[in-house]
Structure prediction request, 508 residues.
Amino acid sequence: MEYTVKRLSSLAGVSPRTLRYYDEIGILKPARINSSGYRIYGPREVDKLQQILFYRELGLSLDEIKEIITSPSFDAIKALREHKEKLLAKREQLELLIANVDKTIDSREGRITMSDKEKFAGFKQKLVEENEKKYGKEIREKYGDEAVDRSNKILKGMTQEQYEEVTKLEKEIIETLLKAFKTEDPAGELAQKAADLHRQWLSFFWGQYTKEAHAGVAQMYVDDERFTAYYDKHQPGLAAFLRDAVLIYTGTNK
Amino acid sequence: MEYTVKRLSSLAGVSPRTLRYYDEIGILKPARINSSGYRIYGPREVDKLQQILFYRELGLSLDEIKEIITSPSFDAIKALREHKEKLLAKREQLELLIANVDKTIDSREGRITMSDKEKFAGFKQKLVEENEKKYGKEIREKYGDEAVDRSNKILKGMTQEQYEEVTKLEKEIIETLLKAFKTEDPAGELAQKAADLHRQWLSFFWGQYTKEAHAGVAQMYVDDERFTAYYDKHQPGLAAFLRDAVLIYTGTNK
DNA sequence: CCTTGACATTGACGTAGCGTAAAGGTGTAT
DNA sequence: ATACACCTTTACGCTACGTCAATGTCAAGG
Prediction:
């Protein structure tokens, strides 16, 4: 397949100008120039553009990208694996930010207080870490061990908070589930409420909720004795009942 | 707490120049200017800077950010909630990208083939979504339900993979732990290996690993009968042994 | 008191990665 | 033959700062 600037640009979701610029700086030259001076791109250029966009998404400069992909020792697959690592790291960074937003909301609503330092956690973890190493001792000297320890406790406190909410959810799930079990109807309102609570519970541990995963976990409760025992100790058959409710809840029983 | 440019900049992980620029464009004015012309920032400015950096992280332009935060109807908490939504969306986008990288690796290694269109999936989810709507039916007609379903299965397959790896880890933990238990030494090599496996297992569920959280979970294993039972059923005292090993592993026993 | 060094100021120019005309040539369908 | 969507190069504009330069401020030490 051959593409002109416009065609390739709309395929890749970039502007024609971008492609001309990439040509200009030598990062992506067209396969050939036709008799009228038109840039013509081939399949190899499509792949290369894909690579470029991958790295651009990571925030690498075009110069860096150029070095990476034009290097003679360039190993595409290895680069991709590294790229994936970076994406995973970026996702972790995002998790940090999300946690910080949660904390900030709590703080704004007066439930907790945040130190100024905490407010910027997650923006530059490296920098923060360096500061920790550099100034940790200094702070300890200045403000005493108490302040440092209190700050450390905030971390533990979060875990504590999480833990409390999780256990509260667990209780609710069991309670709702036991009531629902008596109705013998996994599609009923109570059972569906239990399934929803269970979704909330799951969301606590799984960053991203998907129906498939939820259904999978529910099935696991029946297949894995560890979980079966946990639910069935309250009421034999409860694990299977929860699974049925969740399968209906997620719509994967069809 | 009051800050000069340098102090605030190092707190927030930005350059002094950035703060001056933010002053210049009116997005973040200092609380006051002292007699020598120094910019002095107060707590309100700290919070505002935090907001700005949040939005900047999202890729919003400073102009857009300015509009958002200077708007009279600006509701900080509401904005934070929306912000969180956007972060979650960004994370999803990242998941897509990661999936695409995986697929690309597969493709490069010849296991699957990708259409040129597929190669750009994840870059512009809107575009992709539109394409899906526009061409979804067409693809289904062209390549048959099988292809579409297989593609859907990839998502399910990932969860399956996760599940398998988790259960594999669980097995390893128990095995290692049982061997370690015989040594009666929670600081020994085997026990520490078990603690490390447990860290890996935990990292599967928790986005971000912290020693405190790890130690907290280990303590939970002893405090919460559900978990105690799970470990002790293999060997009475195993939960406590794991906790001790983890406390040593995380260095929180000092 | 004076120096030193780390901080502060404004001003101004540089950079990256394009966007956006301007001024013109090309392809092809009607 | 004309329209219209595409292509070309040249060139200036924009954002979000980085990076000097030239100069003032402040706290500590000799």
Chain A has eleven helices and two strands. Chain A touches chain B through 63 residues (CB under 8 Å). The beta strands of chain A are 32-33, 39-40. The radius of gyration of chain A is 27 Å.
